[in-house]
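User: As part of a screening pipeline, I want to sanity-check one entry by hand. Below is the sequence and the SMILES for 2-acetamido-2-deoxy-beta-D-glucopyranose. Please return the complex as C-alpha cells so I can compare it with the automated output.
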Amino acid sequence: MTIFSLLTYFFLLTSAAASAAADDSIFLDCGVSGSSTTFDGRNWTGDAAATTFTLTSGTLSLPANSPVSPAPATPYHTARVSASPFTYHLPVTQGRKFLRLHFFPVNYGNFASSDALFTVTAGPYTLLKNFNASQTVEFLGIPFLVREYSINISFLNLTFTPSSALPASYAFVNAIEIISSPDIFSGGNRPQPYSVEPDRALQTMYRLNVGGQVIRPMQDSGSLFRTWEDDSPYIHGAGIGVAYAADENVTIRYPANTPEYIAPADVYATARSMGPNPSINLNYNLTWILPVDPGFYYLVRLHFCEISYSFTEMNQRVFDIFINNHAANKRFNVIRASGGIGLPVYQDFFVVIPNGSEREKLVDLWVSLHPAPRSKPEVFNAILNGLEVFKLQSYDATLAGLNPTPSRKQGNDAAMDNAIQVSGNSRRRIRLIAAFTGGGLGLLLSIILFTLFSLLQKGIARPSSMLGSSALAKGSSTPCRHFSFAELEHATNGFDEAVLIGAGGFGKVYRGTIDSGLMTVAIKRGRSLSGQGIQQFYNEIETLSKLQHHHLVSLIGYCHDSAEMILVYNFMSQGNLGEHLYGTKDPLPWRRRLQICIGAARGLHYLHTGANPPIIHRDVKTTNILLDGEWVAKVADFGLSRKGPEIGHSHVSSAVRGTMGYLDPEYVKLMRLTEKSDVYAFGVVMLEVLCGRPALDPAKAEEESLVDWVLQSQKDGAIDQVLDPYLKGKARKLCLEKFVKTAVSCVAEGRVERPAMGDVLRNLELALAFHLQECCLEDSSEAGHSF
Ligand SMILES: *[C@@H]1O[C@H](CO)[C@@H](O)[C@H](O)[C@H]1NC(C)=O
Ligand SMILES: *[C@@H]1O[C@H](CO)[C@@H](O)[C@H](O)[C@H]1NC(C)=O
Ligand SMILES: *[C@@H]1O[C@H](CO)[C@@H](O)[C@H](O)[C@H]1NC(C)=O
Ligand SMILES: *[C@@H]1O[C@H](CO)[C@@H](O)[C@H](O)[C@H]1NC(C)=O
Ligand SMILES: *[C@@H]1O[C@H](CO)[C@@H](O)[C@H](O)[C@H]1NC(C)=O
Ligand SMILES: *[C@@H]1O[C@H](CO)[C@@H](O)[C@H](O)[C@H]1NC(C)=O
Ligand SMILES: *[C@@H]1O[C@H](CO)[C@@H](O)[C@H](O)[C@H]1NC(C)=O
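Assistant: Here is the complex for your manual check:
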C-alpha cells in the first residue's frame, strides 16, 4: 500500500466515522430513580434508573434538605452524594461534545454543604480540583452553577473524588449533560492559521449575547443547549454604548463559513454599539471586563453582524479591537469581513494569561473596541454582537482553576467600580510574542497575546456569574417556593373558570388557596412554553424574587413542571386600579386616588433608585397597579422589566415593548429606554386617575388619546372639562392644580423635561397635603367615604 493510499484510506475512515456518529444527548438527573422528568422542555433521566451506563456502587441518592429554594426542582433538588470516589462509565460516540456539570450546594442528608470538597476528572482531563461549590456560588452571588466543558472523547469515565485533605469531605453532583457538538473550535474549512487541536479540552468561561437578552438552552441553535447571557454586567464604567436590535427587514443569513450552530440568530440580531455622538466615541473605549483564572491560554471569540440599514457600506464603520490593552485587530470592518448586512462573521483570538505573582486571584481579561479614525470611516463607531471566552486545557491536562477568594465577593456598585479601578490602574507590562495574519481575504486574524502582569493587586468580583448563572434569582434573598403542578391544580380546583380573576397577554389568573386553605393566592398560568413567554416568565421570577418592597407585589413561588409556567403571588383582593376608575358604579374617592398614586410612585421610585441594579418596569399602566384589602397600591408584572443603565448616565435600547397609550414617544422614536419611559407611563396613569377614563378610548374618536385630549384642553384653558365628573367639587383647587401640573410634566414629549420619579412622589405628597388641609378646613363631606 502506498503512502498516498494509506492517507486516503485514513481520510475516508475518519470522515465515515464522523458521518456515522450518532449524536449523544444525555440529560442525567442525579440521585433520581424516576425515569424521566421534564424541565424547561428537556427530558431528564434519573441516574438511578438509566441503564445505558454504569455507576460505581456505594453512592447515595439524596434530596436537598432545603425544599424552599431558588433552584428549580429538576434537576437541582436531588444529588448523587458520596464520601468515597465514584465514577460514571458512559459510552459515548466519537467526537467533540459538551459536558455540563450542575451543582446546587446545600445540605444533603447528613452531608453539610461546607464539607463538599472534591476533584472531578473526565478521562485524562482534570476538570475541577479541590472544588468548593459553596464558596464559588457565594462568590458569584448565585444559588447554583453550571460548569461547561468541551471534550473529544469516545468513552467517558467521569470520576468524582472527595479531597483527601479533609476527613469529612464528600463529592456530589446534581446533573450531568452530554451533548454531541459539531467541530466549533478547529475552524472547519476556514483558512485559520491557528486552531484548537482535536483533543484539546476547553472550558467555557463566558458566553454573552451582546446587547440582547438571555438565550436559554432550548432557544440555542444546533441543538447544543447553550446559555447565552446578557453582557451588561461585564461592561466597564459608564460608557455602556447603545444596545439595539436588527432593523425589521433584516434577516440573519448564515454563510458557508459561519454555520448556524456557531451561534443562534438571536445573538447576531442584537448588538451593542458606541452611541450616536462621534466626539464622545473617540474619547472612550467600549470595554468588557471578564475575570479569568491565571496560568492558562484562552480562546476569545467575537461575533459580528451589521443589522442596520444605516451600515451597509465597507467604509462606514471601521474600528480597532484591543484585547488586554493590546491591538488584536486594527481597522476591522464588519461589512468587509462578512460580505454584507445580515451576514454573521466571527473572529478568534488566542490569549495567554500567565501565572500572576498572586496565583490565588482571578485576573481580568479586557476586550475593548475603539473607532479607527485614521481609516476615515463615515462614522466613528464600533459594534459587537456576541462574545465567548474559552479556557484551554494546560499541558498537564487540567482545566481546574482556583476557588475564587471569598473576601472579594459580590459587593455594591461602588465597591465594584473601585475594584475595576484598582485593577485598571495596576500597571501591566504586555508583550506580543506572535501574530499570524489570516490568509485568503485577510478577514481572519488570530494572534497570541502574551500578557505579563507585573502587579495585580486585586482580583475582581462581578455582580453576575461566569457561565451558569442560570435562569433564576441570582443572589436572591427572598425564598421563592417551588410548587408542583398537582399542588396548584388542587389549589384552583383544577383551574376552574369559576375562580378565574383575570386574563392577559401572559395567560390566565386564578384565585386559589394553598397551605390547606390558610392562604389565598393569585395563580398566573402561562399560555405556552413559547420563546417570549419563557423570557417573561424567567424575567419575572428573576426580578421579583430579588425585590421586596411594600409597594411591589410579592412573588410567593412558581411551578415549571411538565411544560407549565405558573407564578404564584399574594392575592390582591381589590383587583387593579383601572377597575376602580371606569366602568364601575362605585368610583374611588379623590383622597384614595391620591394615596394609591403615591404608593405606586413609591414602588417605581424604589425600582429606579433603590434596587441594585436599577430596574425599568417598561409596562406601567393602571391594570398593573394592584390593590390589596387595605387599598395599598402594589406595582405588578415585571415580565418586560429591564435592568436599567446607571440612572442618568445612559440608556438601554431594545425592541419597543409596552402597552399602546402608555408608550414614551421618545422611546418609540429612538428605541432607547430610560427610567423616564416609566415616568411617562405613570403620567398617563395619573391622567386616568384624574379623568376617570382609559388611556385610549377608540369610542371617543378625536379624543381617543387621553394625553392628547388633556394637553389640548389645557392649551385651550379648559382643563375643567377633562376632570372625572364624579370628582367635580370634591377635589380642591390647589391640590388639583398641583396634580395636573405634575401629570402633564410627566407626559412631556422630551424625556429631559420629565421629572424623576422622586420628584413626582414629592409633588404627589404635596398635593395630598393640600387636599387634606383644604378638605379639613372647608368641609368634611368626603370624610363620609370610608378611606
Ligand atoms: C420528551 O419526552 C416526551 C415524551 O416521551 C416527548 O414527546 C418529547 O418530545 C421529549 N422532548 C424532547 C425535547 O426530546
Ligand atoms: C467551602 O466554602 C465555604 C464558604 O466559603 C466555607 O464555609 C467552607 O468551609 C469551605 N469548605 C471547605 C471544605 O473548604
Ligand atoms: C474506564 O473505566 C473502566 C473501568 O475502570 C476501564 O476499564 C476503562 O479502561 C476506562 N476507560 C477509559 C477510556 O479511561
Ligand atoms: C476527535 O478526536 C479524534 C481522534 O483524536 C479526531 O480524529 C477527531 O478529528 C476529533 N474531532 C474533533 C471535532 O476535533
Ligand atoms: C429596510 O428598512 C429601512 C428602514 O427601516 C429602509 O431604509 C431600507 O430601505 C429597507 N431596505 C429594504 C431592502 O427593504
Ligand atoms: C503556571 O504555573 C504552572 C506551575 O505552577 C505551570 O505549569 C504553567 O505552565 C504556568 N502557566 C503559564 C501560562 O505560565
Ligand atoms: C482604548 O484602549 C487602548 C488599549 O487599551 C488604549 O491604548 C487607548 O488609550 C484607549 N482609548 C481610550 C480613549 O481610552
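Points to compare against the pipeline: The first helix runs from residue 3 to 20. The chain has 15 helices and 40 strands.
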